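hiii so my PI (J.) wants the whole complex modelled not just the main chain, which honestly fair. so below is everything: two entries, each one labled with what it is. i double checked the lines twice but i was tired so who knows lol
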Amino acid sequence: MDIGKSGSKAPSTALSKSRLRREIARHRSVYLLALIPLIYYIIFKYVPIWNAQIAFKDFMARRGVLGSEWIGLENFRTFINSFYFWSLIRNTVMYSVGKILISLPLSIILAICVYECTRPALRKVVQTLAYLPHFLSWVIMYGILLALLAPGDGVVNDLIKLFGGQPLDFLSNVKTFPWVVLFSDAWKEMGWSAIIFIAALMGIDVSLFEAAMVEGANSWQRVRYITIPAILPVIVTVLILKLGTILDAGFNQIFMLYSPQVYSVGDIIDTWVYRQGLLEFEFGLATAVGLFKGVFGMVLVLLANWLSRKLTESSLF
Amino acid sequence: MRKLRNILMITIAVLMVMPAFAGGSSEKASAAAGTPDDPVTIDLWFGAAVTEAGMIPDDWVGYDIIREKLGIDLNLTMLPSNESDQDVRIQAAGAADSLPDLFMVRRPVLTNLVEQGLVAEVSDCFEKMPVRTAQQYDANSIAHTTIDGEVFGFASPGAIAKNEGLLIRKDWLDNLGLEVPTTIDELLEVARAFTFNDPDGNGRNDTYGYGAFVETDATLKGYPGSRLWPIMGAYGVEGLWSFDSETAGLSIYKPEFYDFMVTLKTMCDEGIIDPNWLSYKKDDFRAAWKQGRFGIMYEQNAAYAATANYAPFDANFPDGEWIVIDAVSGPEGHAAIGAYDMNYRIYAVSQNAADAGKLDKICELLEWMSSDEGYYLCGWGQEGVNYVLDENGIPVAGDLGDNAFTGPKGQVYTQLRNMVFYNGDVELASRYPTYVTEVSGKTMSALTTLREMQAKKWTSAIGSGTMPTPNADVQRYYDQSLAEFLTGARALTPENWQAFLDQFNAIGGAAWNAEGLEKMEADGLIR
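here's the output for the full assembly
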């Protein structure tokens, strides 16, 4: 029996290998295309893993990665014992989660609006305008935000004063700064993030909508019962992927916008690493924090993926 | 198919073993002879003089001269203009043990690199560069790059000391019938009048008394920064460190610092300081004074009076006039425009370059730069092409148009000028010519303004640049706490101030201060 089993397995494996080869040969151009991102990932994502060992070393550049002295978890202790550790974690998670809660629904709503729009010209204009901010750097965005929000002559404060209110220094006030971060990010990235949802919407079978209309479903009911369920797997995928980078709250944005008066709500892990790790030549410490973030993100992704599979029967892997 | 798989396997294998070579090959290239036919290659990362103008073109005659006369093949790379970006670039190269042969670096970063053994000791080099040493490297300069008794770089004179000043809109004073303020109380009164009495007479409530932005660094300009120095000077707390024998240490510990904070908070609460000051970056601030938003400011001489910088203000306010005024005195009689240190630009040699035997060639290069030929070529370009000499022997643009050293095409040939300039008379006369403004016809000179500013009362903080810097947490606590007091997030009371100092000491402020005092005593900086 056993022999029979193993005897039947060998031809089956050989067959599947042969089939795989044929498949690869048939789609070789696609595989070649895949080679480019594969090489990218190997060079920029996997190769650096080797250097991640400096997280456990007192890294001395002249001695190199291998020659530097092992110091165990000292770099991790330095980070965790930082006076602002919990503040950094809180701020980072606050911005990451906040961006998911605000940007993700807005992106989905925009995608649905664009999809439902029946005027092609209007759709193109809206799409272009929504994508545009993504291509602006945060340096430019800072200039725009200053023009809008400056307490002296910002447009928003002019409006506040017009209605008899007191001007607010949005960028220097600890109560308003987080909202500026969250909504400016939503403004900048909403259009770009909507692309994946628009693509998902394009894949919905049109006959479903036609049938629903025949049954008398209105626009809202079509969105609720057809559109959203249809793109739910994509939403779950995006959400899971975002959880993997939950400790990346957007260094470029925060670095441009924050200042000492809002450090208490603006300083995130990455800005701390920039000041303490890079500017102070503590590359071991910077790497330790990077590793900490990566492992934490991976655990969250695995957890979210498992939960998603259990609850929605939809998961990433 | 098998071939494809093999190629894939080999590619992946090669990529996977790449980390072993990530630090670069340790094998030394065979030494070049250092002749025109077999030149020594020297990689130089320099701080550009005109950052927005672009790189020195490949057709620069300097490359050929340096190769022919010195046997050096010079590779130039411009560092980013922003100091933090410069630091990151240098430190990243240091971390990869791939620093260039010769590179510009700031003192705090140099200290880090020296600790890592990445920088060559150069005390033997000065005697190999007699002209340059006489011109640029005095005892103070050498002390600036001395770490634990050894010299790790060449510190050339940087920005001119005391080149900033307290300026006030004289036309606004005249419009309101006010005198130039001489005390802090008078300054606040003028600021109130500038804010509430429509000094420009346009019928709109669109002006403020004082304008500033937060300009800090880790060694001289502690929070809230140098743009507030004239006000801090009235309380004797200008400068991050006090080098006075009675109050040596961090200025924050002086009781007068609290008084200064109260004054500044009052200015914020009354709205007589431009409320945008906490949000402004340098360019926003400069755009604001050119648009007539405020009437009192602390500004640099050339940023105020150089031709291109003054032109927008001149066009907007042909009748407008700024004047440089004396430091205002405070309740105890203190007065200072600000604190000054000697400014240096440090060029360091990597240990790898020294190991490769390039140190002598680097000395030859620097010495040539300070020769007449190198000085004028790097400073102004080619005579007759990029500059002509006037009757006093001062390089001027003449009618050379775009190719002149001041023109868009010519200025790229002067990108190395900060490596040869030492703030000599020729440089200043050439850099800051007297001119007549286009719209109002005023006669202006950034050099005259500079001399006016230098003549005011300043506090010496020489040695600040070598003082220790705190870790990120202490620095954040310091900056954040002061900012919170000013914005009202924390009430500015004596009790809260003491609580702030106690916590500051507890998280490392006291240790930072003690380290600084030790440094001051070791270097004889206390006066």
